[in-house]
Amino acid sequence: MVMFKKVLVGYDGSSHSKKALEVAVEIASKFDADLYIVEAVDTATIIGMGQSPIPQELIDQLFSRAKDDVKQASELAKGKVHSVSGEVLDGDPANAILEYAERVKADLIVTGTRGLSTWKKLFLGSVSSRIVSESKVPVLVVR
Question: For residue 44, what pLDDT band results from cuts at 50, 70 and 90?
Answer without folding.
Answer: confident
